[in-house]
Every structure is written in C-alpha cells, then in structure tokens.
Design a protein that fits this description.
Structural class: alpha/beta
Oligomer: single chain
Helix content: 25-40%
Number of strands: 7
Radius of gyration: 17 Å
CATH architecture: 3-Layer(aba) Sandwich
CATH class: Alpha Beta
Strand content: 25-35%
Largest sheet: 7 strands, mixed
Strand order of the largest sheet: 3-2-1-4-5-7-6
Number of helices: 8
Number of domains: 1
Distance between the termini: 27 Å
Length: 216
Amino acid sequence: MSFDIKTKPEIYFNVVRKEMLPFVPTEARVALEIGCGDGNFAELLLSRGVLEVWGIEYEKEQADIAQKRMTKVLVGDVAEQLTRLPDNYFDVIICNDVLEHLIDPYTVISKLRHKLKKEGVMISSIPNIRYFRNLFDYFFNKNWDYTDSGIMDKTHFRFFTYRSIRKMFESNGYEVVKMEGINPTKSIRPFIWNLFFLGSFWDIRYLQFATIARPK
C-alpha cells in the first residue's frame, strides 16, 4: 500500500461497517477481508454463519488484534501477500474502503479473481469523489485540500466515481451484479442540484458506493 497508516487515529480502524453486511451473500462460508483492521467486521461475519474469515492487514498492531478474532491474518502490503492466498478458495472477498488506498487497485482485483470460488463474489465499499460536500468545496470554495480522514484522506492514492468504479471492475474481469449508493446525506442541497440539472447529479448524495461483482 505504501502509505503512512501509523498516523491514523485508533477510531480509523475500529469503525464497524454494519451497512456492508447485507451485501455479503448469506450462503458464504469462507471469506477474505482486505484491510481487515482489528477484525471487527470479521466478528459480524462469524456471528451470522461464516465459518472461516481470513484477512490481510497492513498495520501490524491492528493485525495482532485481528489474529485473535479471525481464522488467519496476513500482515503487509496486499499486493505482496496475494501469492500466499489459496486459489479458488473464498466464497466472498471484502474490500471495505481499502481499494482507494492502493497504488494499483486494478491489478490487485484482477489477481483476486483467482482466489474466489466459481460462484464467489467481491464486495467493495469505495468513497465517491462526487459527494456533494466535495463538489461544493471544489466549485464554490476552489479547495482541493487533503484531510486526515474522509474522501480527501491524504492516504488515498485513487479517487472514484460511480462510473469509474463500474469500469474498474468490468475492465478487470468482473461482472457488476449490484451497485448501490450508501451513507446518503440528509442535506436537501443534493436534491435541489439534481432537480435543477435534470437528474444528472443523482450520485452526489452518496458518500460511498457498495458494489457486488463476480468474475466473468
């Protein structure tokens, strides 16, 4: 991954992504989570019937905690750990807000295809660079400032839109089965913009997009 994750506050790793659980197939029994943090999402998976949860985590301190909760945790850069994973083994691979941290997420997801079983799927949550607060800050305040967390996180190497997320998966051997905006704003401003521009700004109300993709 090659970013200074050690500067992140503890809460960065400890957020439980409960909103992503409905995207995980209920029949999944063997899972892999990329960027598993301390293993809190793995605990959710295990509580609903997943039998094995593997993880890859860049930060050793978080991985040490995750080891106590998960079946197996590999420590280090995900691109370097892929060869240690068994082929055709996982029912689901989960990437909760991690692909944007990778220098080359395209190659990573392409290689991860071979780690999935025939009917396996990849689940991802990816920040939306067109989120309305970002657009407003850019267009009206002329700001493109990096922050310690959020969409403009200084450790993000890649930025994505609804369209570019779909293109990334489809151009790397996947079929997008489902794609849905998550964590919508309660502000009325995106609705006004969308109405004024005849529906072309429908996507700006969502902080992230959740995607289910399967190998073609």
